[in-house]
Each structure stands twice: as structure tokens, then as C-alpha cells.
Design brief:
Elements: E1 5-11, E2 17-22, E3 29-38, E4 42-52, H1 55-68, E5 83-89, E6 95-100, H2 106-109, H3 112-127
Antiparallel strand pairs: 1-2, 1-5, 2-3, 3-4, 5-6
């Protein structure tokens, strides 16, 4: 079964950071995996962090993701460097979408909710360390 939610952030010249929910555990867990580039652009796991999710926090994650996906589709940015953010989710229906550099013209492009979603994920890890 696919993950309920995956947020993958891939910088142009650095390793990926990936957030995902383990829904097969009780309680559900949020995982943050940080990778580093290792020869031939292959990635190796550098760090992994886990936060157990209460029912309330899990529902808040779903709500914030829904808001985070409320952006303009079909734009062409044309940037060669920057970050590529990919969201894959089975919360509402099967979806996978990737966007380039959501920090670029965030308000104009409608990515404020997506950036807030990532900030919320990071805050969960900060409050549990």
C-alpha cells in the first residue's frame, strides 16, 4: 500500500529531505528522512527522525495538506536551479504533483499553504526533540 502522504524536497545540488506517514503503526508516525549525495548522484540516508502522532495531530496534518494543495496549477516557471517539491497523497484521492521552487514568488503563485505545511511538519519534530 502506498504511503498516505509523502513530501519530498529535492534541492538542485544537495540531498533530498523526505517526510512521510507510517500508517501501519499504532499510533501513526511521521518520519523525516534526510539524505546526502554520495557519488554518481546516488543518495544515502544521513538522518532519520520519528514523531508519534496523536489522532488530533494526524487530523491537523490532513487539514494542512488540503490547504497546502490549494495553489495554481498549469504554470510554467522555467527555472533550472532551485528545489523541486513533490507531494504524493492518498488522503483524499490518489495524487502526485511536483512544483519548482515554491519559495519563488510564493504569494503570487499560491504556495503559501504548501510552505506552511512544511513548516508545520518541521515544528512537530522540533517540539519532540
Amino acid at each position: 500500500m502506498p504511503q498516505e502522504m509523502v513530501l519530498s524536497i529535492q534541492p538542485s545540488f544537495d540531498g533530498t529531505t523526505e517526510y512521510y506517514i507510517r500508517s501501519y503503526t499504532t499510533p501513526k508516525e511521521l518520519v523525516k528522512a534526510e539524505y546526502v549525495l554520495s557519488g554518481n548522484a546516488n543518495e544515502k540516508l544521513k538522518n532519520s527522525y520519528v514523531v508519534k502522532l496523536s489522532t488530533e495531530t494526524y487530523e491537523e496534518l490532513r487539514n494542512k495538506l488540503k490547504l497546502g494543495l490549494s495553489f495554481k496549477y498549469g504554470e510554467r516557471v522555467g527555472m533550472e536551479d532551485g528545489e523541486t517539491w513533490c507531494v504524493e497523497s492518498w488522503y483524499f484521492q490518489a495524487i502526485k504533483i511536483c512544483v519548482q521552487s515554491p519559495e519563488y514568488k510564493t504569494e503570487e503563485r499560491g504556495y503559501k499553504g504548501l510552505l506552511e505545511y512544511r513548516s508545520y511538519l518541521d515544528a512537530l519534530f522540533e517540539s519532540n526533540t
